Amino acid sequence: MSNVRQISVFVDNRPNQLAxxxxxxxxxxxxxxxxxxxDTKDFGILRMIANDTEKTVEILKAASYAVxxxxxxxxxxxxxxxxLSRVLDILxxxxxxxxxLYAFLGKSDRAVSFVIRVDDNANAAAAxxxxxxxxxxxxxxxxx
Length: 144
Known about the structure:
It is globular, with a radius of gyration of 16 Å. Strands 1, 2, 3, 4, 5, 6 and 7 form a seven-stranded antiparallel sheet that branches. The two termini are 20 Å apart. It has two domains: 4-70, VC0802-like; 72-142, VC0802-like (2-Layer Sandwich). The protein has helices spanning 17-27, 53-62, 83-93, 121-130, 138-142; strands at 4-12, 32-39, 43-50, 66-78, 98-104, 111-118, 134-135. It has 144 residues and is α+β, with helices and mostly antiparallel strands. The longest helix is centred in the first third of the chain and has 11 residues, at 17-27.
């Protein structure tokens, strides 16, 4: 199984808060490879994959941000109609619940990459392997 570590940062839902996080990351010469922001009225959750997870967590915690690291799956599929539906069918047929997913830039313009958070990484990874879906490692993403 090739779990990838995702960093979640809890950010106040006010002007310039996200910019502050990203400035810390920029100043530390960290490269963000995948990114998603979800919000509520009072705070946002910035989810990202960085090229250096440990350093990213360290600088964010030092700046007093609430940070959590979660293992997720990352995949690469052909950029053609129906491919995501195929992945969702593979996971659904194995009773894997998808909590969220988001797309990110990959290595090729003929493929699309996704972060997938599921309720059972091991079961999902086995199902994806059985279905011939390419799973990305943390190194694969860092090198994109």
